[in-house]
Specification:
The complex is a heterotrimer of chains A (505), B (327) and C (330).
Chain A: E1 7-16, E2 19-29, E3 34-39, H1 45-52, E4 60-65, E5 68-70, H2 75-80, E6 83-86, H3 98-102, H4 118-132, H5 147-160, E7 165-169, H6 177-192, E8 196-200, H7 204-210, E9 213-218, E10 221-227, H8 233-241, E11 260-269, E12 273-281, E13 285-290, H9 296-303, E14 311-316, E15 319-321, H10 326-331, E16 334-337, H11 341-345, H12 352-357, H13 361-364, E17 365-366, E18 371-372, H14 374-388, H15 405-414, E19 423-427, H16 435-450, E20 454-459, H17 462-468, E21 471-476, E22 479-485, H18 491-498
Helix pairs in contact in A: 4-5, 14-15
Chain B: H1 8-14, H2 16-31, H3 38-63, H4 71-87, H5 92-116, H6 121-140, E1 145-146, H7 149-156, E2 158-159, E3 162-163, H8 164-182, H9 184-194, H10 196-201, H11 206-232, E4 234-235, H12 243-253, H13 265-286, H14 293-318
Antiparallel strand pairs in B: 1-4, 2-3
Chain C: H1 2-19, H2 23-35, H3 45-70, H4 78-93, H5 106-131, H6 136-155, H7 165-172, H8 174-194, H9 196-206, H10 208-213, H11 218-244, H12 256-266, H13 277-296, H14 301-325
Helix pairs in contact in C: 2-13, 3-8, 3-11, 3-12, 3-13, 4-5, 4-6, 4-11, 5-6, 5-11, 7-8, 7-11, 8-9, 9-11, 12-13, 13-14
Classes of the chains: A alpha/beta (505), B mainly alpha (327), C mainly alpha (330).
The structure holds adenosine-5'-triphosphate (ATP) and magnesium ion.
Adenosine-5'-triphosphate (ATP) binds at residues 16, 21, 39, 41-47, 88, 402-406, 434 of chain A.
Chain lengths: 505, 327, 330
C-alpha cells in the first residue's frame, strides 16, 4: 500500500460573480512528490491554490488532505494542517521587521505569557534566513528590502511552519539567477525530507528541472496531467495555450534605425549610478541586462524623472530635458512601464477602461473645459484592448484587480500605446506572464519599434533579450559595463559582463 | 552593505520631535520665566494626563487605520451616569466602575458594528457619538452636575509623593507600550493596519484584533474621563466635546499615521498630548487673549507636523539603499 | 425549479436596487413613507420649502467635501471657512462700517470677496498638503482651529447685521438659492464625470503613485480639490449668511459631522477613488429628512441627537449589506 496522496482535489468548481473560473478540477498530489501546475494567465492556478490555502471557498467539490477530509475556512486552518503558502503577490508587511513577518502568527513566547521571546525570535530567524541564503539582520524593516529579498523572506516564512505541503505560486519572479539556484537547492532538500510541493511557474524550464508530475490548467479545467517525462516542452505549451506555438519570439523585421530618440550623457547620481552614457534610436530595441540590484530600475526611474540625478544630460528626440518632471517627459514622448505594476503601473480598484485611458486622457480633452470626448475615448479603448489581446471575458468596467497577472501587465503596457511614444522604457515587462501572452507582448513591443518608437527593455532574462533586441547594454554596480550588437550576443559574455567586480570594497 | 543609520545628521533628524518640543518649551520659558519651573512642569503633565490617556487608546485604533470619534461621548456619558449615581448616594468605587463599564460597553458596540456588520469606523463611531451624547443629555437634563469632593480627591491623591494621575498615566503608557511592541497581539495590530487583506491571508484573525482595539479605546476614553472629571469637579453638558479631535491631534503630532500601521504610544502620542497642553498652559501664564488660543495652537500643530514631514522626507533619503560606493 | 428561478429573479431585483446609484434615494422614499403618518406637517408644501432651504447650503459644502474625499483626503476646515467668509463678507458689505456700504456693487463684490477668502484657505490647505507632504487630516484640523479662531478673534465673537437686501436674497429667497445650488451641482457633476480634471481626481484617489507615473499633475489636482472645497464652502457661506441676514463667525460651526456624514452615507469612500454628485445629493437629502422630521415631532434636542445617530447607523448598515452582497473582494 502506498501512502495517501498529500492532497486530492475532487471536482472543485468556483465562480466569481457568475463567471466560472474553475470547473470540476480533479487531480491529486502524491505524497513526497513535487507537482508542477502550469497554465496561461487567468487559467485559475492561484484561485485553486487560494482554495487550498483557506483564502477562498469552492462552490462545489471537496479536498482530501493526507487521507482526511479538508475544508479550511481560514488560512490558519490551512497552516494548522501543515499547508504553507507562498503567495504570488508578496504578502509581507512593510512596517514590520523580517523576523516579525516570518513569525507573525507563531511568535515564540516567553513561557506561557503573551510576551514575545525576542532572543529566540532572533536566533530562529537568523537560522531561517541562512537556510534561504539571505544575508540580512532579522530586525531589518521589510520596507528596506528589494523585491527579490522579500520573496526570500516569504519563502522563509513558509519554512517556519512545520509544513507537509508547500505551495509556491511563482516564487522566482523577482529572484536573480543565483538566488533561484539557491532556492532550488533548498527545495531539493525539502523534497528529500518527503515534503510535497506544488510549484507554479511560467518558466517551463524550471518546472522541468524541479517537478516529478505536471498538471495543465486551461480556462479553469484540467486539460492534461502526468509525469513530467511524458511531456515535451512543446506539448506542454500547446496544452496550455490550446494551439501549437511554433516560435517563442516573433521575427524581427525592421531594425532600420532612424534618428536619435533617447540620448543619455554622463548621468550620475551618487550612490546609485555613475557616468551613464548610451543612446536609443527610433525603431531600435535596446536591451538592458544585469543582475538584481545592478541599478537598472533606479536608472529607469531617473530617466523618467521620478528620481533626481546630480549631473549629466538626458534628451528625448533631440530635446534636452533639464530637470523636467514625469509629466513633461511624457509630453516629450517618453513612456515607462514600471516593474512594480501594483504601485506604479495600475490603479487596481479602478476599471480597465479608466486605467487604459489614463495616459491619453489629454488627447481626448476638448474645449476650454477639457471635457472628454466620450465616443473617441471609447473607440480608443476598444482599439487598445484589441491590440493587447485582453481576454474577451473581462468587460471594460471590471476593476483591474480582478484580472490575472498577465492581463494586468497587458493593461499596464496598453495604456502607453495610444500616444505612440518616441521612447518606451520597459522594466521587466514579461515578469509573471505566460508563454502565450509573452509572445503577444513581444509582438506588441516589436510593432511599436517598427512604427518608429525606440525601446529600452530592462530584463533579467537573457534569452528574452537575445530573442528580441537589436543591441544589449549590460549594467553592473550602477555602471554600464558593456554594449553588444546582435552579432556579438552570447550568453556567457553577457553574464560575465554583468558580474560585479571585486576590486573596490 | 546596508548603511547603518547612525550619522549625527540622522540622529538629529530622528529626535526632531523632541527638539521641537524643547524649543517650544524654551520659547514659553523665555516669555514667562514661571513656565520653566518644576511646579509648572508637573502641573502641565498632570493637566495633560486625560488627553494623553484618551490619545493612547486612540493610537490603538489609528494603528489599524480606523478612527474612534465617540471618545468624547463616552467620557460624557460615563460622567453623567457616575454623577447620577453619586448624587443618589452610591459609593465612589461603584461610580468609577460604572464609568469604565460604559467605556468598555461603547467600545464593544463600536467593535460589533465595525467587525460583524462591516460598517466604516468613521460612520459607526460618528453615530455612537450622537447616541452617546444624546443619552447623556437625557440623563443630565442638560444641566451641569457637581461631583462630590471624594471625586476631586482622586486628582489630589499622592502615592509615594507622586500624584495619582501621573501614576495612572505611567501605568497606562507602560502597558500600552509593552503590548504594542512586545506581544504578538501588538505586532499583529501593526500588520492589520498595514494591509488588512494581507493580514487575513497571513492567518491573523483580523476581526478579533479590530474588536480589541475599539474596546481598548473605549476603556481608555472612560479612564481619561475619570481623570478629567477629577480635575473639573463637575459634569457640564459640554464635557468631552471635541475631545476626539484633541486625541487624534495628540496621536498624529506624535507621529501616528491616520492610514494605519505607523506610530507609537511612547514617546509619540504622550509627547503630542503634552505638547498640546504646554501650549494651552503657556498661553494662560502669558495672559494671552483667550480668543488667540486656538490660533496659536493651530500654528504650533502645523509647525510640528511640518517639521515631522520634512524630517521623514530627509530620513528616507538618507537611509536610502545604495548600489555603489562613490568616493 | 421555478422556485429557484423566482428566488433568483427576486435576488436580481434586490441587487439592482441595492447597487443602483439611487439606493439612498430609495432609502429616503422609504423613510418618508414610514415617518409621514406619524409626523404632522411633514408632507406640506411649506415644510418642503423649509427642508429645501436648509438642504441647499449643506449640499453645496458636501460637494466640496466629496471632491476632497475622492482624492483620498479630508477637509475638516469647511465649517470654519463658512464662518470666516460670513464675517469677511459682512464686514465688507454692512451698512454701518463696510467699505462697500450702500454701494450698488456691494452684492457682487462682497460675494466675490467671500469666494476669494474661501479659495485662499483652500489654497493654503492644498499647498501644505502637496508642497510639504503634511497629512490632510491634521492640516485641515489646524486650519479649522486657526481660521475659526481668527474669525472669532477678529469680531470678538460678535455678529454683524444690516447687510444689503440684494445679498440677503441670494440665500434668503429659496428659488435663487436653488438656482445657485443647481448650477453648482451640475457643474461639479459635469466636471467629475466628463472632464479631464474629474478623471484625474479619481486616478489620484485610487493610486497617486500610478497617477504620477502616468503623467497626472498630482499635486495640482490635489491643490485644485482643496481650492474647490474652499470655494464651495464660501458659496454655502453666502447662502447661510443670506438666510440669517447676519454675518457670524460661528456660522455653520455645528455642521462639520453632518457634512462628512451625509457625504459618506451617500456612498463616497473615505479612502479615495469613489464618489459622485448624485450620491452626495441623496446623502444630504436623507440626513436633512431625518433632521426635519425629528424637528417637526418637536422632540427634545437630546432625543433628536440619539435618533439621528441611530438613523445614520441604519443607513450605514444597509450600505454595508449591499457591499457584502456585491462582487466579492472589493
Ligand atoms: N476576486 C475576483 N473577482 C473576479 N474575478 C476574479 C477574482 N480573482 C480572480 N478572478 C479571475 O479568475 C481568473 C483566474 O485567476 P487566477 O489568479 O487564478 O489566474 P492564474 O492562473 O493564477 O493566472 P496568473 O498566471 O496570471 O497568476 C482570472 O480570469 C481572474 O480574472
Ligand atoms: Mg496566479
Amino acid at each position: 500500500m502506498t501512502s495517501a496522496p498529500a492532497v486530492e482535489f475532487q471536482g472543485i468548481d468556483k465562480n466569481f460573480s457568475g463567471v466560472p473560473v474553475l470547473r470540476a478540477v480533479t487531480f491529486s498530489v502524491a505524497a513526497g512528490r513535487t507537482l508542477g501546475l502550469v497554465g496561461e494567465n487567468g487559467a485559475g492556478k492561484s484561485t485553486l491554490m487560494n482554495i487550498l490555502g483557506g483564502n477562498l471557498r469552492s462552490d462545489h467539490g471537496r479536498m482530501v488532505l493526507a487521507g482526511q477530509p479538508y475544508a479550511p475556512g481560514h488560512p490558519t486552518d490551512a497552516s494548522r494542517r501543515g499547508v504553507a503558502f507562498i503567495h504570488q503577490d508578496l504578502n509581507l508587511f512593510s512596517n514590520l521587521t523580517i523576523a516579525e513577518n516570518i513569525f507573525l502568527t507563531s511568535f515564540p513566547r516567553l513561557g506561557g505569557a503573551p510576551w514575545i521571546a525576542q532572543r529566540r525570535l532572533h536566533t530562529r530567524t537568523t537560522q531561517l534566513l541562512h537556510d534561504v541564503g539571505l544575508d540580512l539582520a532579522p530586525d531589518t524593516p521589510v520596507e528596506r528590502l528589494s523585491t527579490g529579498e522579500c520573496q526570500l523572506v516569504e519563502i522563509a516564512r513558509a519554512l517556519s511552519v512545520d509544513a507537509r505541503l508547500i505551495i509556491l505560486d511563482e516564487p522566482t519572479t523577482s529572484l536573480s539567477a543565483r538566488e533561484t539556484d539557491a532556492l532550488f537547492a533548498l527545495l531539493r532538500r525539502l523534497q528529500a525530507q518527503g515534503i510535497a510541493l506544488i510549484y507554479i511557474s511560467h518558466i517551463l524550464e524550471h518546472v522541468r528541472q524541479l517537478c516529478h508530475d505536471v498538471v495543465v490548467l486551461r480556462d479553469g479545467a484540467v486539460v492534461a496531467q502526468g509525469t513530467i517525462a511524458t511531456f515535451s516542452t512543446a506539448a506542454l505549451i500547446s496544452a496550455m495555450v490550446g494551439r501549437s506555438l511554433t516560435q517563442l519570439y516573433p521575427t524581427r523585421h525592421g531594425a532600420a534605425t532612424g534618428e536619435m530618440a533617447l540620448e543619455v550623457k554622463a548621468v550620475s547620481q551618487p550612490g546609485i549610478v555613475r557616468a551613464i552614457d548610451f543612446t536609443v534610436r527610433r525603431g531600435e530595441v535596446v536591451g538592458m541586462f544585469g543582475l538584481m540590484g545592478a541599478g537598472r530600475s533606479e536608472l529607469a526611474r531617473i530617466l523618467f524623472g521620478l528620481e533626481p540625478h546630480a549631473s549629466g544630460e538626458i534628451s528625448i528626440a533631440g530635446q534636452p530635458l533639464a530637470h523636467a518632471d514625469a509629466r513633461r517627459r511624457i509630453e516629450h514622448g517618453l513612456a515607462f512601464v514600471s516593474d512594480d505594476r501594483r504601485h506604479d503601473g495600475l490603479c487596481l480598484h479602478a476599471s480597465i477602461a479608466d486605467n487604459l485611458a489614463l495616459v491619453s486622457l489629454r488627447s481626448h480633452a476638448r474645449g476650454k473645459f477639457k471635457l472628454i470626448d466620450r465616443t473617441g475615448w471609447q473607440r480608443a479603448i476598444s482599439r487598445i484592448r484589441e491590440a493587447v489581446r485582453l481576454t474577451a471575458k473581462a468587460n471594460d468596467d471590471q476593476p483591474v484587480q480582478t484580472l490575472s497577472g498577465g492581463n494586468q501587465q497587458k493593461v499596464a503596457l496598453g495604456k502607453w500605446l495610444l500616444m505612440s511614444p518616441a521612447v518606451l522604457i520597459l522594466d521587466e515587462p514579461t515578469r509573471g506572464v505566460d508563454v502565450g501572452a509573452k509572445f503577444d507582448l513581444y509582438q506588441l513591443m516589436l510593432d511599436l519599434a517598427d512604427r518608429g518608437s525606440g525601446l529600452l527593455v530592462i530584463s533579467s532574462e537573457i534569452e528574452e533579450l537575445i530573442g528580441i533586441c537589436d543591441r544589449i547594454l549590460v549594467m553592473s554596480q550602477g555602471e554600464i559595463r558593456g554594449n553588444f550588437r546582435r552579432t556579438e550576443f552570447n550568453r556567457e559574455t553577457l553574464l560575465t559582463a554583468a558580474l560585479p567586480r571585486e576590486t573596490q570594497t | 552593505m546596508r548603511p547603518r543609520p547612525s550619522s549625527p545628521g540622522i540622529l538629529v533628524l530622528r529626535q526632531a520631535p523632541l527638539i521641537l518640543f524643547a524649543a517650544i518649551v524654551l520659547l514659553f520659558g523665555a516669555l514667562a520665566p514661571k513656565f520653566l519651573t518644576a511646579d509648572n512642569a508637573i502641573n502641565v503633565l498632570i493637566q495633560a494626563v486625560p488627553t494623553a490617556i484618551v490619545a493612547v487608546g486612540m493610537t490603538f485604533v489609528l494603528l489599524t487605520a480606523g478612527v474612534d470619534l465617540s471618545v468624547g461621548a463616552i467620557m460624557f456619558l460615563g460622567g453623567a451616569i457616575a454623577g447620577k449615581l453619586l448624587v443618589g448616594g452610591q459609593p465612589l468605587p461603584l461610580a468609577l466602575g460604572a464609568i469604565l463599564a460604559v467605556g468598555v460597553a461603547f467600545g464593544a458596540l463600536n467593535a460589533v458594528f465595525v467587525t460583524r456588520l462591516r460598517i466604516a469606523p468613521f460612520i459607526v463611531t460618528l453615530a455612537l457619538l450622537f447616541i452617546g451624547r444624546g443619552v447623556a443629555l437625557t440623563i443630565t437634563q442638560t444641566r451641569a452636575m457637581n461631583l462630590p469632593d471624594s471625586f476631586l480627591q482622586l486628582g489630589a491623591t499622592r502615592i509615594a509623593g507622586v500624584p495619582l494621575p501621573l501614576m495612572v498615566l505611567g501605568a497606562v503608557v507602560l502597558t500600552a507600550q509593552v503590548v504594542l511592541m512586545h506581544t504578538p497581539f501588538g505586532r499583529q495590530i501593526y500588520a492589520v493596519g498595514n494591509h488588512p487583506a494581507n493580514a487575513r491571508r497571513a492567518g491573523i484573525r483580523t476581526q478579533r484584533i479590530l474588536a480589541a482595539v475599539y474596546i481598548i479605546c473605549g476603556f481608555c476614553a472612560a479612564l481619561g474621563g475619570i481623570l478629567s472629571l477629577a480635575q473639573l469637579g463637575a459634569v457640564s453638558p459640554k464635557f468631552g466635546e471635541a475631545y476626539e479631535f484633541k486625541a487624534i491631534a495628540a496621536a498624529v503630532l506624535g507621529g501616528t499615521s491616520l492610514f494605519g500601521g505607523r506610530g507609537a504610544v511612547f514617546p509619540g502620542t504622550v509627547l503630542g498630548a503634552v505638547l498640546i497642553q504646554s501650549i494651552e498652559t503657556g498661553l494662560v501664564i502669558l495672559n494671552a487673549d483667550p480668543y488667540a488660543y486656538p490660533v496659536v495652537t493651530a500654528a504650533v500643530i502645523l509647525i510640528a507636523v511640518l517639521v515631522d514631514s520634512v524630517r521623514n522626507t530627509a530620513l528616507s533619503r538618507l537611509t536610502q539603499r545604495r548600489i555603489r560606493v562613490d568616493a | 425549479m421555478s422556485d429557484a428561478a423566482t428566488a433568483r429573479s427576486w435576488r436580481a431585483t434586490a441587487a439592482r436596487v441595492l447597487f443602483s446609484d439611487y439606493f439612498v434615494l430609495w432609502l429616503c422614499v422609504v423613510y418618508v413613507a414610514v415617518v409621514a403618518p406619524f409626523t404632522p406637517g411633514f408632507l406640506t408644501l411649506e415644510n418642503a420649502g423649509n427642508l429645501l432651504a436648509t438642504l441647499l447650503p449643506l449640499f453645496v459644502v458636501a460637494l466640496g467635501q466629496t471632491l476632497v474625499l475622492i482624492t483620498g483626503g479630508i477637509d475638516l476646515s469647511v465649517t470654519s471657512i463658512i464662518g470666516l467668509c460670513s464675517i469677511t463678507g459682512a464686514l465688507a458689505m454692512n451698512d454701518d462700517t463696510g467699505w462697500l456700504a450702500r454701494s450698488p456693487m456691494a452684492m457682487p463684490v462682497g460675494a466675490g470677496v467671500m469666494l476669494a477668502a474661501g479659495a485662499l484657505v483652500g489654497g493654503f490647505n492644498g499647498t501644505a498638503i502637496t508642497r510639504f507632504r503634511m497629512p490632510p487630516f491634521i492640516v485641515t484640523l489646524a486650519s479649522m482651529m486657526g481660521v475659526s479662531g481668527a474669525a472669532v478673534w477678529l469680531t470678538q465673537s460678535k455678529t454683524i447685521n444690516r447687510l444689503p437686501d440684494a445679498f440677503n436674497a441670494l440665500g434668503g429667497k429659496t428659488t435663487i438659492a436653488l438656482v445657485i445650488a443647481l448650477v453648482v451641482g451640475i457643474s461639479v457633476h459635469v466636471m467629475l464625470s466628463r472632464s479631464m480634471f474629474g478623471r484625474w481626481l479619481y486616478a489620484v484617489g485610487h493610486n497617486a503613485r500610478t497617477a504620477r507615473v502616468s503623467g497626472v499633475p498630482v499635486n495640482g489636482v490635489i491643490l485644485g480639490a482643496y481650492i474647490c472645497s474652499g470655494v464651495l464652502a464660501a458659496v454655502a457661506a453666502i447662502l447661510y449668511t443670506g438666510q440669517a441676514e447676519t454675518g457670524s463667525p460661528v456660522l455653520g460651526q455645528r455642521i462639520l459631522l453632518d457634512v462628512i456624514g451625509a457625504t459618506v452615507i451617500g456612498g463616497t469612500s473615505l479612502f479615495g477613488g469613489r464618489g459622485k454628485v448624485l450620491w452626495t445629493l441623496f446623502g444630504v437629502l436623507f440626513l436633512k429628512l431625518v433632521d426635519n422630521s425629528l424637528n417637526l415631532l418637536s422632540l427634545s434636542l437630546f432625543t433628536l441627537t440619539i435618533v439621528k445617530g441611530v438613523v445614520i447607523l441604519l443607513a450605514a448598515l444597509l450600505d454595508s449589506l449591499r457591499t457584502r452582497l456585491g462582487p466579492a473582494d472589493r
